[in-house]
Amino acid sequence: MTALAEEVAPVVADKPVPEPVSEPGADLDEVLWQAWKALDLPEGYRAEIIEGAIEVSPTGRRRHGVLVNRLRRALDAHLSRSGYAAHQDVNVIHRHKPWIPDLFVAPLDLDEIPDEEGLGVDAAGVKMVIEVTSPGHRNLQRDRVRKRREYARAGIPVYVIVDDFDDEGAVLVLTSPDPKKAKYTDEHRVPYGTDAVIPEGPAKGFAIGKAIVVP
Question: Predicted confidence band at 8 (pLDDT cuts at 50, 70, 90)?
Answer without folding.
Answer: very low
